[in-house]
Amino acid sequence: MKNLEGGVQPQKKPSLKLIIEGKHYKTFEQFMTGLQLKELAGIPPDIELFLSVTKPYRDELIENDVQVNLARPGAEYFFVKRKLQFFIDGNPFTWYKQHIRGIQIRELGNIPSDVDIYLDIKKGWEDDLITDEEEVDLARPGKEKFITKPAEGRFTIIVNAQEKNWGKPTISFEQVIELALGKYDPSPNKGYTVTYFRGHEPKPEGTMVKNSVVRVKNKMVFNVTATDKS
Fold first, then answer.
1. What are 24-60's pLDDT values in tens digits?
2. Domain assignment present for 200
């Protein structure tokens, strides 16, 4: 085909159709790598992507650096074999791993830092506060539901079987003792044992020593005992 100046007018490539996770896409590129396909669909790079192949052939794993010819007859269909769904304030989201961190929930839901995220627990039980560092298992039965609430700036911790309000992200050995016993005695004749559990990963339980500090998690449990060395 010639243009008005007499030259040859380049032909526009026809668009090619493909389907990724049920969504339809169009591209003018004949070849795309697995990584490009994942980027197009918003799938994390470390998630396995498969090309659906007509029976009786097995579905083909598409590595990130593998190129796929999209100009073959029909629309190519790509999918991931593992995906988990959950809700944030009633809105559905999809995740491709068994666990998700609080900060990832915050980013997906565009949740500001002054808003807390809670795992919605069934009626009659208190919702579980999810901190940015905490991991949630999405593979449990049912679809996890998260709700958001304005941050109260405090935690509820359990010290010697008593619920205590705490308004800081960390707590020291000495502060735990003060909550448990009313005061901390630094004299060498006084000894203390402080243990905790239901804390943050990777060390959700352990023993505190003088001047040590741990990060606080809602419903974290502390046990304190005092001994007289005199």
1. 999 999 999 999 999 999 888 988 888 887 655 567 8
2. yes
